[in-house]
User: Fold DNA-directed DNA polymerase from Ureibacillus aquaedulcis.
Amino acid sequence: MTYQAFYRVYRPQSFREMSGQTHVKRTLQNALLANKTTHAYLFSGPRGTGKTSTAKIFAKALNCEKAPSGEPCNECPTCLSITEGSHPDVIEFDAASNSRVEEMRDIIEKVRFAPANARFKVYIIDEVHMLSTSAFNALLKTLEEPPPHAVFILATTEPHKLPATIISRCQRFDFKRLSSNDILERMKVVLEDIDLPYEEQALKVIAQAAAGGMRDALSLLDQVVSFSGETLTLENALLVSGSISQDIFYEVVESLKAKEIAKVLTAIEELIADGKDPLRLAEDLITFFRDLLLLQTSSELTELLELVSPEDKFIQLAHDFSADTLYGYIDILSKTQQEMRFSHHTKIYLETALLKMAQVPNSGAVSVQAQMGSLAIDPDMSEKVANLEKMVQQLTMQLQNGIQAQGNGGVQQKEAPRPRAKSNNFNAPIGRIREVLKSATKQDIHNIKNAWAQSLSQLQKSQAALLAEAEPVAASSSAFVIKFKYDIHCRMVAENREFTSLFAQSLSQMTGTMYEVLCIPENDWMTLRQNFIKENGLNQKKGTSDEGAEVGGDDHEEPFIEDGPEIASEDPLITEAEKMFGKDFVEVVED
Assistant:
């Protein structure tokens, strides 16, 4: 008889022999015992996790002559023929090779025929995601309402490629990656069966290289057994799997800790020259630092270690790094690993990552405590702390005696905060407007008002509408202030630098002066104006309105605000109306 690979010889033949997948085994066994099996199942998960093996075991349990039972007997003719793959009522269909709709129609036509010598006709469709759209459509109706004697088991590694209509008609079971312990135990069974001595660490290396797949682990074990002599050793496992021993990683990390980057890069160069893949090196380094974190966290996590054995030197190495440093190393390597997948220069990426790691500061817990101790005994620091304590005691006494309250009162009288006009929607340039008020003149505001109506007429209607409810209220030789009735209009004009510049140029053509435009809402203007009058001690001028005020100084004898009825008559719009209709027919109404 020809030689068969381990993964074929040691394929589980019952639920009891399956490794892991407890949630799948228990659900299927309970359904078998209660005779509540359904017509369609979907087994999804990574490769080598037992999907096809579970499908065959389930088919045997359905058709076993000793059913209903939670396990196939593997003794009756039906179980034996299914195990051999010769039973006519258990059909295995490879969708990767037969993805066309014609092959699927051939299956569908034969579904309606009763099984030859079994209770159920079981169709196991492997890699079902490879079926074409037409094949899925042909299968859809049969999958929803098959004959009572038909059971479909769909297996796939990529369930996201299946149509939602197919998934919704199946009971879905998600197979998980097998743990290292499950793979380790299965390999021990195989090696004990062939009576081959082995080293425990060698099996851990193989389990770690398998990445959760039992078939990959058994295939790799088959290679190592063929390469080895009388004993399966760690050295042989490392050589065949392409992995690296923990001692080499120990030396690399020791050099990294000592900031001896030349030794680190030389070691990596030698490993790559020996045929090690840089991407695999990055992955193994991540696993190594992860094991160091576990050793640092707790001594009870040794069973979870993958690359490192719980020896004293590794425990000491784990405590030589702070947790933050190890997290930083893992983060750098993880990002580098993602970049390496899309590049042909993987070696350069790995060397760059190691250079970054050498620059990460290592502030271990011991060194931090030492630093704290040195700070505690520093005489200068002790003196500063004593002085601070004295100051706190003095301030506490002042508060108790009421000195602090008097001091605060004096400060408030000396530096009284200025009331600040502030709008809910727009913050006016209060400081700049105050400067304008200090140097405001009657002649400048007259010039602005005389040119106001003509300048508005030169604007677009949408722009002029923003200034319809606005008016100039104060002006100096370089700037003037516009008061707005509505805050939203004020904000729109103030924030439109292009518009304010255009309007200032229009005014300059008539006044001969290029003024800066300052905007303020009406409520804010009234508050600011009253505060300015109070702060500067200005007296109201007789004969003017309540809003008129004189500004002190030789050049500021004229009022900076003209809202009174006498000045209102000088408004160019009112003057023009009086010319057209006569003064007797024009009445000025104040809002």
Notes: Residues 365-377, 403-424, 540-559, 561-569 have pLDDT under 50 and may be disordered.
